[in-house]
Amino acid sequence: xxxxxxxxxxxxxxxxxxLATGVLTGVAACSPGPxxxxxxxxxxxxxxxxxxxxxxxxxxxxxxxxxxxxxxxxTEALNKAFMAKYPNVxxxxxxxxxxxxxxxxxxxxxSANPPDVVQANQGYPDMGAFVxxxxxxxxxxxxxAYGWDTAFPSQLLxxxxxxxxxxxxxxxxxxxxxxxxxxxxxxxNKAKLKSLGLPPPSTLGGFETALAKAKASxxxxxxxxxxxxxxxxxxxxxxxxxxxxxxxxxxLVFDEGDAKWTDSGTLKAATTLRRWADKGYLGSGFNGxxxxxxxxxxxxxxxxxxxxxxxxxxxxxxKMKENVGFTALSPATGQPPLTQGGEGLAWSVTSKSKHPDxxxxxxxxxxxxxxxxxxxSHGNLxxxxxxxxxxxxxSVDADILTGWKAVSEKDGLLPYLDYTTPTFYDTLTxxxxxxxxxxxxxxxxxxxxxxxxxxxxxxR
Length: 460
What we know:
The protein is α/β, with parallel strands linked by helices. 44% of the residues lie in helices and 11% in strands. The chain is globular and about 65 Å long.
């Protein structure tokens, strides 16, 4: 076995109380300084020009994955406002789905005319690979100039840090900041649950009981479509969090201790998801259905449940009004909720940008107090909730804020599983599809994940 590079202990994902209440003054810690000894290029040193109006005529090319209605609306509104404030700047927006972004962004970054600003997914598969290939530039000087290093808790900043060689996550230079917070939970149709005589689920066991009762009544229990791949790993991640618990999940994703993907908690999660598929809880033909089809099916009242991220509230609220609710599940009654989540993809400045200072000013426009307020007004959960952010009581956004507080205040936020290794997204998404289709046993599923994980460990 090859000698492994030592990894520093990971801190919590969220400065829980600060993010849950939106009160950050005196709570957010300053971020650690850059490390790794990388040489600093001309683009990443010197004074920062914070006024885009003085930059002359600029076209800023921006790649994002904000295709969901709420995220798209807030991005369009902020882009329009930025160009109105700085008429000399034209924003050329390229928006891709998350799946498309993963397959096309590196090619775009490596091209002769790369974008100036991109949304980079945290972890080894994307941000780490981009840093290793020197496709992103550190933004530490911008963090200092705009106050990101004090506005954002260090736990959020650390998710966007890498050593200069891309080998060590959560330490070293800062490569972006995020606008939104997010958790994965259970959306439920209030009228459907009332007709079934069921309360909103609060535990994994209670949720499975509700799925069984819905199926027995002739309803499709869960709206689910995994053609986009990410829905599968979100559903599995929620079940794994509750079945395996936070110590095991964190050890796996952050490469700490001696946890293995073949351990009992992950095997139990795989067995549970396979059981749901075998019992018909996921419906039929789900690997050929898109997440948008699943969300639409739920909004039309064709099922009582949907497991998805908080970003879907902007899609569901206009269609379902107060008939849609949201909850984060607990492992058992009396225990705090556990689920995947953290922050949205980081807004990053590319290494080849001809206008890095304007790019950074644009990012600040997205993540400053007004940017967070605009994001919230379009149904998004801001990474730093404004103090006056108070969703309408009884609305799904109110449920989401309650769930966010419940998860974060009790340290129940767990990392997305695809962060684990540079190849884990592809390995996990394919394995989930095969597991739910009946082509992989739960044991074979966990063995495949462990093989990817072991290969990464042995290569370090």
